[in-house]
Amino acid sequence: MPSADSPTLAQPDTGIVGGNPAARTRCLKPLQYSGTLDHYEHMDLTPVSGREYKGLQVTDLLKADDQVMRDLAATISQRGVVFLRDQVVTPQEMKQFCLRLTDVAGCPESSGLHVHPLTEEGSELGDQVSVISSEKQKKGGGLTHQLSDVSRFASAGWHTDISFEPVPSDYAMLKIHTLPPTGGDTLWASGYEIYDKLSPSMRAYLETLTATHDARFFLEEAERLGNPIRKGIRGSPLNHGDQLQAVHPVIRTNPVTGWKSVYVNKGFTRRINGVTKDESDMLLHYLFNLVTQNHDAQVRFKWNKNDLAIWDNRSMFHCATYDYMEARTGDRVCSLGEAPYLDPASKSRREALAL
């Protein structure tokens, strides 16, 4: 992996910034939606992102042909996040579904399901299922303990999953099966829309930069909890060991849509490379604020029991709302995509859709 001081990761003769030959996408052109999901009742939740389907079950999609799954992948990547109500699906079926979704969307052959570094050995649901539990957090544990405990500002929780890995997540799915009577909503924000808010000059500058994503605070968390970090392969041969650090382009291209997205997040991005610390802090503060303070780039979802969300981690940020006292628990599965890259020839969402 390049050092954190590397200003660029340009590939000669291609113009591509970032990526890794061992984890390149097989999606060589954007997926085109063919209409196989049109007969399901659905509605878009905002002009920018979010789509909710009614009557669509993950178990039915597991039996569908590859074109249906490709259409779903295209929809998730274009809308950022898709919501499916009242799902009758097991964690094992979620794992099967996520593997098939990432496969039809062109993930590298070396990519599979992620194993979180803090996942306990012998977890009852398996290494590739993360239990999102408010009860664990109350006891000082859980995957979001550090993110929720370091600030009194709820916006400190905005992140995209596992960007500290050399090969981070493409798709993630979360099913909430235990929830309070009210509260506990989740918000998502579109990295496509954040990119579209930048001036042309700022876009051009940010496209020359990389950032260091760092989760070494997990090492302290593991020691505090008495559970060793998972140092073995975590879903990709490039994700292993206890470095928990990666360098990615500040602007990345989503191969499924061909659109550019801002790719820095409060949870894990520590430094923009090739500039002074003061300049890095200023740029990150501005980009973080674009995510947290632009409600027109966000969609908020109120969960009901057994609802499920599937989102594209390459282009969406998310944040849970900790405004409840009762138990809130769910199961999350993350698939791994390609090593992040920027294709300068790719377009913004608004350019591509002529908005």
Automatic annotation (TrEMBL):
Residues 44-326 form the TauD/TfdA-like domain. The keyword Transmembrane does not apply. Pfam families: TauD (PF02668). Its cofactor is Fe(2+). Residues 1-21 are annotated as: Disordered. InterPro entries: AtsK-like (IPR051323), TauD-like_sf (IPR042098), TauD/TfdA-like (IPR003819). Keywords: Dioxygenase, Iron, Metal-binding, Oxidoreductase. The keyword Iron applies. Residues 1-11 have a biased composition (Polar residues). Belongs to the TfdA dioxygenase family. This is TauD/TfdA-like domain-containing protein. It comes from Phialemonium thermophilum.
